[in-house]
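Schema walk-through. Below, the input block comes first and the output block second. Nothing else is stored per chain. Lengths vary across the set, and this one has 76 residues.
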Amino acid sequence: MVITLGPELEAALNEAASHRGVAPEVLALNALRERFLGIASSLQPRDEWERGLLEAARDCGVSLPDSALGSEGLYD
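--- output ---
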């Protein structure tokens, strides 16, 4: 399947992908997967608490490096 994007949608997709640090193709596939397949995850909740947690979760697309979690780099 080939999907042709208009210039506005392509620009928005490129900008959102850049902010998340992923390729535009990956962001588009993830959005389509979430929209049409729901949260397809191998995680199965064991109780109501886990079910609520997984329903509230959002995929941000990137993981922060350990260096971003410390204050060492703030004062350079």
